[in-house]
Amino acid sequence: MKERIVILGGGESGTGAALLAQQQGYDVFLSDFGKLKESHAEVLKLNGIDFETGSHTADKILNADWIIKSPGIPKKAAIINQIKEAGIPIISEIEFASKFTDKKIIAITGSNGKTTTTSLIAFMLERADLKVGLGGNIGHSFAKMVMNDQDYDLYVLELSSFQLDDIDTFKPYVSILLNITPDHLDEYDYDIKKYGQAKLRIAKNQTEEDYFIFNADDEITSELLKETNIKAQKLGFSLIDEKQAAFADDINFNINHPDKFNMTVEELALNGKHNVSNSLAAAMNGNILKLRKSIIKDSLMEFDAVEHRLESVISVHGIEFINDSKATNVNSVFYALQSMKTPTIWIVGGKDKGNNYEELIPMVKKKVKAIVCLGLDNSKIVETFSPFVDQIIETNNMKDAVNTAYLLGKNGETVLLSPACASFDLFESYEHRGKLFKEEVHKL
To answer: Where does ATP bind (predicted)?
Structure first.
């Protein structure tokens, strides 16, 4: 009798997991509490995979041998509690797919910079003529790629803490932890340590033959590493300590181990201190994989920033518009404001995830001329920054936000969309929010 796998969630990862499970001979059922995208539903129908939408039917789920949980489903959801009470193992799509490939995996996690670093690493490897499977929290479903495993030389995966919560044997060759700052704490009992421990699971199964790259400047990471047994070779990168395996200051960009490599910070395509750190991590990975130094350097010099992350849109009458819609937490916004070089009109707001905006006050006092709130509830933002910023205007749609920011700006100034919040009060996703921002800017 076939083993039965039930997939919860029919997004990119869930649909991919269903297809791989079917390919591997399992009895497959997919359940989505919401509404499936038409494209996903069509794929399931074409492949004869049984599914339901709009509810989770316990009788069809609790007879599973395995549950594959999509990362967007809260750990405290009622169906998850029922599954745990029934003693059915829960794994992630990442864990499941990794069982069916022996290709090297490069895995990247962190509160900020994951997408940029993952994309930069994939860009670098493709420049080296390697066939890269780019997926996880970005791009394609890992499971769907593994269905055609022969098409790839290796995989580069961006991983969230939610995806790492449900791994058991997943083992990357190189794991990268960029930083740990408060984010999604509502899913971790508002405990930064529990959230950080979820991130560190990326190195849980690595051996002495593998590599763990980490941010030696990150205080929470450093504290957690003292109490975590990681067998992989640990390589730190730093903007402070030149004795680490990789180090950069305001001028020099140096990889010290396993091979030496150097260039200048000025040559990097990505601006801002946070992106120097991201570039160090990517260069270290290239070094470990023994890419030619010329390929590493050229990639770092030519890579374009990812969409919705400090993305320059256009200048209108000398006012530069920057789309940083992907900045969904306070720490991301800190880095964005830090990189601003002219007086800034800051568009901020959305669905708050327990943000402590006070951390941004010093940077706001230094960089921000005016604030345009974009959200259904802006009270926390107004309360925090009104003592320090004279002009704070509330809006609840993108058109008004962009037009207001434009009227507040002058030649030589910058309008920055960097929300510090999730997008779900007014938009479908941060991509949707960024797309509408760019559309409204181009109408000016």
So the answer is: 110-116
